[in-house]
Amino acid sequence: MSDYFDVAVIGGGIQGCGVAQAAVAAGYRTVVLEKSALAHGTSSKSSKLIHGGLRYLESAQFSLVRQSLYERELLIRNAPDLVKYTTFYIPVYKSSSRHRLTMLAGLSLYALLGNLRPHACFRRVPQYKWNNLDGLEQRGLQAVYQYWDGQTDDVKLTRAVMASAQQLGASLLCPASVEQVQYQSGEYHIAYQHGNQSGLLRTSTVINAAGPWVDTVHATIKPLADFPAMELVQGTHLILQQPAPRGIYYLESPTDRRAVFIMPWYGQTLIGTTETAYHGDPEQVSATEHEIDYLRNIARHYFPAVNDSVVKQFSGLRVLPAGKQSMFHRPRETVMFTAPTLPGYIALIGGKLTGYRATGEKVVTLLQRTLPAKPPLADTKTLRIEPVPGD
């Protein structure tokens, strides 16, 4: 492996792998350094959805929704073995905070932003079919809407995107912990530990895609540069003993009105997620008793006969820019932080699973202000993404 690269990506989650794929597709010598394993952090603990983000319409994030729906279509086409359309159900009750007409308007706008493609549309489930909805509570039920979005295995998708980048020539160092990044004489020197050996590589640009550790990695970079305030938000999911439902239920928590999903997951039922401020070591994140009770209560509220025995629980951390808005209503676009004293350095704050490819392309566009143009090797809009053998 060469010790000089055009692009070095720190972090092997979906965002880092997506940046690597976009960079190598654009013709740049690219390396990814991941300290543990691909998708070790947030990218293995998501809600497993490839979707436009219906709830983001309430906060007028129309461009985010439109872009996410576009990215969903690309993934359905380019990764058909990894991303598949799944039926979603939205029940509306007398007690729901969103009236039937509000939901109708939201789904109509969602379909329009999806260019009215067949899978962008929706319908109302007739009442005589409500008994087929996995034991959904019917007291006070006024309407059930059905639409389609994507579902994936986030770990398998991350590995497949990295494999795609490697097939184009990208290098992967894993496990490899970054010890220090020094900018000098127009390039970056990255000191890292790979197994029992120390290593040093040189690169023209650095992408900090370390997720919950983004500020920790930033602190290793010399010269020091200020970093924007950010917050970590814990999201917990439970896998229940309950057999898999027929589709994904988009529900409203009866206590705080947050959106929660109940969905099929490898023959069982997955429910999530929560949003809890987190202030500890990202390696130590774990579900709290309050979160477990919160999710189990939602499951029992909507499905009184559910077997809510917990088979597994997992918690991940989302990174959000600091702000005064509630975490639930905070904008979810990826923030790309740059520092005048660090040319060719970009730190990624936040980001959604669905939009990883678009984020990668935006990063490459920014890097091209620093890097010379190269003959592209592929177009990520059409690049086929195959599962890694054995996954």
Account of the protein in words:
Strands 3, 4, 5, 6, 12, 13, 14, 15, 16 and 17 form a ten-stranded mixed β-sheet that branches. Strands 1, 2, 7, 8, 9, 10, 11, 18 and 19 form a nine-stranded mixed β-sheet that branches. The chain is of the alpha/beta class and 391 residues long. 23% of the residues lie in helices and 34% in strands. The two termini are 26 Å apart.
Mean pLDDT: 94
Termini gap = 26 Å
- Secondary structure class reads alpha/beta
Strand element count: 19
- As residue ranges, the low-confidence spans are none
Strand content: 25-35%
- What value does the Rg take, in angstroms? 22 Å
Major sheet: 10 strands, mixed
Structural shape: globular
Q: Helix and strand string, N-terminal first? A: EHEEHEHEEHEEEEHEEEEEEHEEEH
Considering DSSP H and I runs of 4 or more, what fraction of the residues is helical?
Answer: 10-25%
Treating each run of at least 4 consecutive H or I residues as one helix, how many helices? 7
Question: What's this entry about, in short?
Answer:
The chain has 391 residues and is of the alpha/beta class.
Task: Considering the chains and any ligands shown, give keywords for the structure.
single chain, 391 residues, alpha/beta, ten-stranded mixed β-sheet, nine-stranded mixed β-sheet, 7 helices, globular
Secondary structure elements and their pairing?
Layout: E1 4-10, H1 14-25, E2 30-33, E3 49-50, H2 62-78, E4 83-93, H3 100-113, E5 122-124, E6 141-152, H4 154-167, E7 171-173, E8 176-184, E9 187-194, E10 197-208, H5 214-218, E11 221-222, E12 230-243, E13 248-252, E14 259-265, E15 268-272, E16 276-278, H6 289-302, E17 310-321, E18 335-339, E19 342-349, H7 356-367
Parallel strand pairs: 1-2, 1-10, 2-7, 4-13, 8-11, 10-19
Antiparallel strand pairs: 3-6, 4-6, 5-6, 8-9, 9-10, 12-15, 12-16, 12-17, 13-14, 14-15, 18-19
Helix pairs in contact: 1-4, 1-7
